[in-house]
């Protein structure tokens, strides 16, 4: 048997990319590749890129520059660029970095094995199509190796919302849902490998609509079906748009024990004028009313959100409305960003807020969000919580797990307990984690 070839994958961006990278590794497994965690000595380097942050493409070009000496030392080294920068830049990548052998968009990566086999025979290949065939059908399953107890499972991709700041509808394409059967089969496969928590992924995951026995299924029905799998203990989903939170999904937060009490529900801003300019298609009051209904179904739910400050046209008064909304919701955790233009999106050509003003608003918003996060974490101190143990911690004898509310929790425990849900008493709160002891 020949030596396995080494594949180094560097993943940028969201959890959907983490999932896609896993699938690409298993697809290339059929070509004799095994994953390695350094680019040194690799036979193939694949960058799975993200386009959401500022200067994303430029960062990829400079990363590719770093691999030039590798290619000089080993002319057989294969270099690929996948993901959303690949989709957005296409041929341009080959023009600027001729050493790149293939460029593959997020909807075409099931064609990777074939593309890989043609490297050297044809010139650099670019595939940024949105093919009619389903990439998930084409990806081979790897051997039934044990896996970490918590796994991602993509159920939906793409976005039809066209928020004025966002590239996702252009790079990932229209909303598409995977079939119920495919998802259930993958969930069973994960559980057989030791997975006890599944995080259902989609750019607009709550817009999921599959069909089962000829009937339409929403995300809530899918979650209820997954909850019937005995060995599966925890279900989560991310990311959701407020306008797709239907009654059934809200109800599921109240009546489905395995659905965790945590919801990432980005609002982006608190001013109706800004929400309209962002094309979010809801007001602040509608969002707050939705939060009230979700809390009525599951009073202890932890909420998380995304915010953009300094969107074109945002005044100090508009920004104050964002702070007010945060004070009203009291997020357990949140992500906040300064607006930065993405070429090709509607907001990119508008008049921008001054950079110093953006920095100031971001600092004030983050101070408030951190205060709320600390208060929420402090409210856990002294309580006993179920924690799913996931991996060893930094210190010897320490393990890290997750609370139902998605807090990272560390405690002294044995590595044999990976995958177990233990009861732990919270001792104190740190910046982004809880310290606990097993009871
Ligand atoms: N500028 C700043 N933040 C952005 N996001 C998306 N596009 C931009 C942009 N152009 C943020 C949004 C989104 C999160 C994933 O990234 O808050 O919810
Ligand atoms: Fe982007 Fe999310 Fe808006 Fe879709 S809903 S355009 S993914 S921010």
Automatic annotation (TrEMBL):
**Binding-site list for [4Fe-4S] cluster 2:** 159, 163, 166
Mitochondrion is among the record's keywords: no
The catalytic activity, as recorded, is:
2-thio-N(6)-dimethylallyladenosine(37) in tRNA + S-adenosyl-L-methionine = 2-methylsulfanyl-N(6)-dimethylallyladenosine(37) in tRNA + S-adenosyl-L-homocysteine + H(+); N(6)-dimethylallyladenosine(37) in tRNA + (sulfur carrier)-SH + AH2 + 2 S-adenosyl-L-methionine = 2-methylsulfanyl-N(6)-dimethylallyladenosine(37) in tRNA + (sulfur carrier)-H + 5'-deoxyadenosine + L-methionine + A + S-adenosyl-L-homocysteine + 2 H(+); N(6)-dimethylallyladenosine(37) in tRNA + (sulfur carrier)-SH + AH2 + S-adenosyl-L-methionine = 2-thio-N(6)-dimethylallyladenosine(37) in tRNA + (sulfur carrier)-H + 5'-deoxyadenosine + L-methionine + A + H(+)
Keyword vocabulary terms for this entry? 4Fe-4S, Cytoplasm, Iron, Iron-sulfur, Metal-binding, S-adenosyl-L-methionine, Transferase, tRNA processing
Instruction: Give the TRAM domain ranges.
Output: 378-439
Q: Which cofactor does it need?
A: [4Fe-4S] cluster
Cofactor binding notes: Binds 2 [4Fe-4S] clusters. One cluster is coordinated with 3 cysteines and an exchangeable S-adenosyl-L-methionine.
Free-text function comment from the UniProt entry: Catalyzes the methylthiolation of N6-(dimethylallyl)adenosine (i(6)A), leading to the formation of 2-methylthio-N6-(dimethylallyl)adenosine (ms(2)i(6)A) at position 37 in tRNAs that read codons beginning with uridine.
Spell out the family assignment given in the record's similarity comment. Answer: Belongs to the methylthiotransferase family. MiaB subfamily.
- The entry's protein name is tRNA-2-methylthio-N(6)-dimethylallyladenosine synthase
Q: Which organism is it from?
A: Neptunicoccus cionae
Its gene name is miaB
């Amino acid at each position: 048997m020949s030596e396995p070839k080494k594949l180094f994958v560097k993943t940028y961006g969201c959890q959907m990319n983490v999932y896609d990278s896993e699938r690409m590794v298993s697809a290339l497994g059929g070509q004799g590749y095994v994953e390695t965690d350094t680019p040194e000595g690799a036979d193939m380097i694949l960058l799975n890129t993200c386009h959401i942050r500022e200067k994303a493409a430029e960062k990829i070009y400079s990363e590719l520059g770093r691999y030039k000496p590798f290619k000089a030392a080993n002319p057989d080294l294969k270099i690929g660029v996948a993901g959303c920068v690949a989709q957005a830049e296409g041929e341009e990548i080959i023009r600027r970095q001729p050493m790149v052998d293939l460029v593959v968009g997020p909807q075409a990566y099931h064609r990777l094995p074939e593309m890989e086999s043609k490297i050297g025979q044809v010139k650099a290949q670019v595939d940024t199509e949105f093919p009619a065939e389903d990439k998930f059908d084409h990806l081979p399953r790897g051997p039934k190796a044990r896996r970490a107890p918590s796994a991602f499972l993509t159920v939906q991709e793409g976005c039809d919302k066209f928020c004025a700041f966002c590239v996702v509808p252009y790079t990932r394409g229209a909303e598409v849902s995977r079939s119920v059967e495919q998802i259930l089969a993958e969930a069973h496969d994960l559980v057989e490998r030791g997975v006890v928590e599944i995080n259902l992924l989609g750019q607009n995951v709550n817009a999921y609509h599959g069909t089962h026995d000829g009937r339409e299924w929403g995300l809530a029905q899918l979650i209820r079906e997954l909850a019937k799998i005995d060995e599966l203990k925890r279900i989560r989903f991310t990311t959701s748009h407020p306008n797709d939170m239907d009654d059934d999904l809200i109800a599921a937060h109240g009546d489905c024990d395995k659905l965790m009490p945590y919801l990432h529900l980005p609002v982006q801003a608190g001013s109706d004028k800004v929400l309209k300019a962002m094309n979010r298609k809801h007001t602040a009051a509608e969002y707050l009313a939705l939060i009230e209904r979700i809390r009525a179904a599951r009073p202890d739910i932890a909420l998380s959100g995304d915010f953009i400050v300094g969107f074109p046209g945002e005044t100090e008064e508009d920004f104050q409305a964002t702070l007010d909304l945060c004070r009203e919701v009291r997020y357990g955790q949140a992500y906040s960003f300064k607006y930065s233009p993405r070429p090709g999106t509607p907001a990119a050509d508008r008049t921008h807020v001054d950079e110093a003003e953006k920095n100031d608003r971001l600092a004030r918003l983050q101070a408030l969000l951190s205060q709320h996060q600390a208060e929420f974490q402090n409210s856990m101190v002294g309580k006993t919580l179920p924690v799913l143990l996931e991996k060893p911690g930094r210190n010897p004898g320490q393990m890290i797990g997750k609370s139902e509310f998605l807090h990272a929790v560390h405690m002294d425990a044995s590595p044999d307990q990976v995958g177990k849900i233990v009861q732990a008493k919270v001792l104190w709160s740190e910046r982004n984690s809880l310290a606990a002891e097993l009871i």
